[in-house]
Amino acid sequence: MIEVQDLIVSRGGDPKKVIESLQKRYAPTEIVDEVIALWNDAYQSQSGHLSQLTTSTYSSSFARKMIYDTDTNSNGIAARYKATQFGAKINAVQKEIGKLKKAKQDADHLLKEKAELEKQKKATEDEATEKEKLRDKKCKLIGNYVHESVPVNDNEDFNEVIKRWAPEGVKVEKRDCLSHHEVMTRADVYDGERGVKLVGHRGYFLRKWGVLLNQALINYGLHFLVGRGYDPIQPPYFMKAEYMAKTAQLEQFDEELYKVVEGADAEDKYLIATSEQPLSAMFADEWLTEKDLPMKFAGYSSCFRKEAGSHGRDAWGLFRIHQFEKIEQFLFVKPEESWQALEDMRETAEAFYQSLGLPYRVVVIVSGALNNAAAKKYDLEAWFPYQGEYKELVSCSNCTDYQTRELEIRYGQKKGAIDARKSYVHALNGTLCATERTLCCLLENYQKEDGFEVPEALRPYMPPGTPDIIPYTKELPKESTSVKAKQQPKPKADGGAPEGGPKLNMPAAENVADKMKDMKV
């Protein structure tokens, strides 16, 4: 969440900046009025007419000044201020009680008065606490500040393409070839029918060479990041609701997260949708110092997503599924270093996909499509030649201090130190490899007439004796996707890889096989 005081002029805030960022997100700006009003109600005394100022009058400079700069000599008294006044009265009454008792006089009437004042104080404190909770809840709906370099639009068709890459000699064009799930069917590495029988929609069994290829991607991805100074880490697969709520957006609970219910007395937990979630909360309520940073994690986990908002999208194969494995880049860095860290993270992802020989492009996501935590996001989209389109394999985001503020991951001198300043580390996350999805792309790009060519970078991670080309062992069913497509008028070609897939003549990236021999994980 953003800092609440960023909305309060008297606390050094600039609400205009917040409004401008919300407008870039194509998000309602009325929430700014509401948070400010709740701040005033909880912490400041207000004139009776002040409460009449609404969003409709907020646009005037006078109304804004009244809301922002109201001081404590007004007629009405806010809850937190009232509680302070009750405290002063209680102290005064307590002194009188002490005097009477010292004089051995009856103080029952003052004891009753004190009890009543304490009751009223608690009521006003509870009222203030509830208003503060509501204020913070609304503040969480305000997204992070959009970086100035982000293209302003609410249509992802206008994502800015900043780079394209393909192996030398490879044309990016649509091909008359098999889809990735057909390659899996012919190579007998996937059983979707029985997976759906047991699990339901998007269920699957990965089998034989499919398991080994997926595991090769996992191991290669981990060692690729280890070679760049990342620490491998495997987080827990579920989280308490308290911490999940501090790192996931509200809509994710409905559309993405699976809830684990143990019983009436047990605390509910949520299965993780990405290792970003537990990694971001790993240091909650802790202070990190300059010597601790940067922290670079290569997170490895299974991930679980309901995909409730993706009905009908990528319904076949392994591209969009409920359970998958992912290698994640996750960084904690000094605030002044986070933007360079985002560029480094993107370049790491690019180097990985170049080593796999997959054509791709990099796009900057438009402001209206950013999730609340991200100030800027890059997507790396790889080419799928059967479909004739680029599809997302990687997202890299700088979340600045949006997550760490709510999780209270502080940066600077520890509590009690001289000149301690309230500052938060910056957190960044980026996919390196969602392995099943990446496997889909590899299958389409590396298919041959008689099988699937194992990319050179993955061969050191396959069992001894693995053939360079994994042969097809099954025929396609008559109603298969590519067979049906051939019976229809072909769409105009607009891109894909040439027959046979990219031919690599390059060493495995960063001599990962050699690093693996010396690595103890």
UniProtKB/TrEMBL annotation:
Pfam families: Seryl_tRNA_N, tRNA-synt_2b. It is an enzyme of class 6 (ligase). CDD domains: SerRS_core (cd00770). InterPro entries: aa-tRNA-synt_IIb, aa-tRNA-synth_II, aa-tRNA-synth_II/BPL/LPL, Ser-tRNA-ligase_type_1, Ser-tRNA-synth_1_N, SerRS_1_N_sf, SerRS_core, tRNA-bd_arm. Residues 176-460 form the Aminoacyl-transfer RNA synthetases class-II family profile domain. PROSITE patterns: AA_TRNA_LIGASE_II. Belongs to the class-II aminoacyl-tRNA synthetase family. Type-1 seryl-tRNA synthetase subfamily. The lineage of its organism: Eukaryota, Fungi, Dikarya, Ascomycota, Pezizomycotina. SUPFAM superfamilies: Class II aaRS and biotin synthetases, tRNA-binding arm. ATP binds at residues 305-307, 392-395. GO terms for molecular function: ATP binding; serine-tRNA ligase activity. It comes from Exophiala dermatitidis. This is serine--tRNA ligase. Residues 512-521 have a biased composition (Basic and acidic residues). L-serine binds at residues 274, 305, 328, 429.
